[in-house]
Amino acid sequence: MRITEKDNNIILEEMESFDIEQILECGQCFHFEQLDVKEYVIVAKRHLLHIKQINDQIIFFQTSMETFHTVWRPYFDLDRNYNEIKSWLITNEKTLLNRSAELEKAITEYGGIRILNQDFFETLISFIISQNKQIPHIKQIINTISIKYGDLAGEICGKSYYHFPTLLQLAKVTENELRLCKTGFRAPYIVDACEKLLKEIVLESRLLHADSNQTMEELMLIKGVGIKVASCVALFSLSQRNVFPIDVWVKRIMEKIYFEKETKKEEIASLAKQLYGSFGGYAQQYLFYYARENNIKVDER
DNA sequence: GGCCAGGGGGTGT
DNA sequence: ACACCCCATGGC
User: Does the keyword DNA repair apply (predicted)?
Assistant: First the structure.
């Protein structure tokens, strides 16, 4: 990785395993907007980022060296060696025994994915909202909530962007107000999440030191948080990279690769743990993106 | 353990 | 125009 500063922009070069489009469009985050091909605005970590990738050159517009190192370097997981992870996922003894051309293709074609280290509160609420919804709609709702209840983050190309509200800001919003943001039956779940966080029944600082089973158990105290939502929160905002969230797409692609028939999520989770071990979260992202991009359907099992 | 509601936009026909 | 689907969960 080579980092240079020019005209108040940071230019990142020689960065392996980094494709800004794959990183943002793989479904792990929702608070961003595409401006052009591989050019995006991201609102995250109480900062606003205008970023563009041209081949192997990644430009962080109007970003100081300090902000790059303290905010974006950890956010984009830049200090992790993804080549080692990808290579291990394909060549460990378990995956060699159950070789899959599709897993290998997923990792090769979508090898530019990185798992972002996102904000805990925003990730929790975002994945509560995500249930039974499509990505464009999730993005729209998060945008509406941010504009109505969050602080102004800044302006890029003449357009204003807003932070996702903090816990204290969102805790003041009523269930009915949340319904007006098209959250539907998830509105009381969001209210319950804010209450449990305020009462410290669920506490981020405790989860950061917990293992993934304890984390899931604590997160699932919140109404509307089941295994899928809890595992996304653990993976995307608590650095628990062993968890393997199973949604309809991952279920389909796992069934196609390893089972060739309809299979219970518990059984899929058990196999994923055996095959991918502590790198389950990475495998899940490659497989999810592969399944969605190739529109894997049930009858293709 | 299986079934179904609950909002509303996406997508295909 | 219309049916079916969606990064699920709670509650029966």
Answer: yes
